[in-house]
Design brief:
CATH topology of chain A: Alpha-Beta Plaits
Number of domains of chain A: 1
Distance between the termini of chain A: 16 Å
Strand order of the largest sheet of chain A: 2-3-1-4
Structural class of chain A: alpha+beta
InterPro entries (chains A, B): Dimeric_a/b-barrel, Jasmonate_Hydroxylase-like, Monooxy_af470
Organism (chains A, B): Hwangdonia lutea
Oligomer: homodimer
GO molecular function (chains A, B): monooxygenase activity
EC number (chains A, B): 1.14.-.-
Shape of chain A: globular
Largest sheet of chain A: 4 strands, antiparallel
Enzyme class (chains A, B): oxidoreductase
CATH class of chain A: Alpha Beta
Chain lengths: 114, 114
């Protein structure tokens, strides 16, 4: 019997830092990133998060509803972080709200579902 | 007048390398990654791609239809890369097929839409 898949939501946040970021604007960025990750995890409806950064940074967070995403966007400390981000930390960013429709996974230690 | 948003699709590929990856299994991985990126861009329905890797790797590719995603998954050289990936390059990966429902963007040099 196939388990029914319950759709959920992903927020894909893609960003670049300004050219002078390493010299001038890094102050407070790492602390704010960590703080936002902790805060996000405390929100209702938060399901998980992955982040990586090279030339571009990609953070994908997962949520159980659009309502949860909206609440997180409007969370007061997060609003301040967004303002600071636009002011100092990012030269560009893009946010995509997505509905996860299906997924599959591979693990070395288990039998593959392929 | 607000431009109508046309939904499209994102494939979120999240992965980890095995512990011994740096020592033993890296051979051919970078070349294959580059080759797959070039190939993906040649597929019908390909819209874009972003990648970054630290502890986890995240690659998000964008497509104009589920059909395009299916065709890419089944592309013969890509099928070989997937097999090699499961055999040597990844200890774990997860693939999520998502419908992008809306998005917004910020750029330093333009007026923000916030």
């Amino acid at each position: 019997m196939k388990t029914e898949f319950k759709p959920y939501y992903a927020v894909i946040f893609t960003s670049t830092h300004p050219d002078n970021f390493r010299d001038e604007n890094i102050d407070g960025y790492s602390e704010m990133s960590e703080k936002m990750e902790i805060l996000a995890k405390q929100q209702n409806g938060f399901l998980g998060m992955d982040s990586a950064r090279n030339a571009v940074g990609i953070t994908v967070s997962y949520w159980d509803s659009l309502e949860a995403i909206k609440n997180w966007k409007q969370q007061s400390e997060h609003v301040q972080a967004q303002q600071k981000g636009r002011q100092d930390w990012y030269s560009w960013y893009n946010v995509k709200i997505c509905k996860v429709e299906r997924e599959y996974e591979f693990k070395t230690t288990s039998s593959s579902d392929f």
